[in-house]
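Ops channel
N.P.: pipeline sanity check, posting one input/output pair.
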């Protein structure tokens, strides 16, 4: 059987102040997420995420 693709076809826009954006990007840079959209989705859906890696010299 073929599995159905889970396409993300819904879009939301959020307005932030400059300070809020700076804080959000600062918090994003401290995670192991590589894409901001994955990071934002994890926050909005309340999923657990790794905030820092153990060996930060990598």
């Amino acid at each position: 059987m073929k599995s159905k693709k889970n396409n993300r076809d819904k879009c939301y826009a959020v307005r932030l102040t400059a300070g809020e954006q700076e804080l959000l990007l600062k918090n994003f840079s401290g995670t192991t997420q590589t894409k901001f959209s994955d990071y934002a989705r994890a926050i909005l859906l309340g999923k657990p995420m790794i905030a820092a890696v153990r060996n930060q010299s990598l």
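N.P.: looks fine end to end. Residues 33-58 form one domain.
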